Amino acid sequence: MASVAQHLLWFLPMLWLGMVLAISFLEAPLKFRAPGITVPLGIGIGRLVFRALNSAEIGIAALLIVATLIVAPGPAPATWLGVAVAILAGQLLVIRPLLTRRSNRVLAGADLPRSHAHFWYIGLETAKAATLIGLAIAAAP
């Protein structure tokens, strides 16, 4: 069991990183450039995609916590994981509600300027990506 958990400590951060890079840094900005995509349609797609991503992230984080408890790899991997989980929690509990309220207003017809919450979310995604790389390196077998 410890061997499987050890491999998960390396593999899951890379899986999580790939998901974040593909969705947050590729799909999200490109969807609004697709022909025929309106702002309401793009927001609807974004909500579905990010809800799925965030659910997967929570699942991966939970598996990583269990693997860390099994392997007890030392302070570095546990610290990297703690930072990644804290970033995810900040995104889900602070930034996402702000973005949801804003998108609700846009869907209701409000013409709003670009949101600073988007920049915070992108900054946290960038930090999370770097943290996941650190975790994978620290936990490498």
Notable features of this structure?
mainly alpha, 141 residues, single chain, elongated
**First and last CA, distance:** 15 Å
Percent in helix: over 70%
Mean pLDDT: 93
Taken in chain order, the helices and strands follow as HHHH
Q: Per DSSP, what share of the residues sits in E-state strands of 2 or more residues?
A: under 5%
> How many strand segments?
0
The number of helices is 4
| Spans where pLDDT lies below 50 across 5 or more residues | none
How is the biggest beta sheet arranged? none
- Global Rg: 17 Å
Provide the number of structural domains: 1
How is the topology of this model organized?
Layout: H1 2-31, H2 39-71, H3 75-107, H4 116-139
Helix pairs in contact: 1-2, 1-4, 2-3, 3-4
Structural notes for this entry:
The chain is mainly α. The protein has one domain. Helix content is 85%, strand content 0%. Helix 2 runs antiparallel to helix 3 (75-107). The longest helix is centred in the middle third of the chain and has 33 residues, at 39-71. The radius of gyration is 17 Å and the shape is elongated. The model has no long low-confidence stretch (mean pLDDT 93).
Report a brief summary of the structure.
This protein has 141 residues and is mostly helical. 85% of the residues lie in helices and 0% in strands.
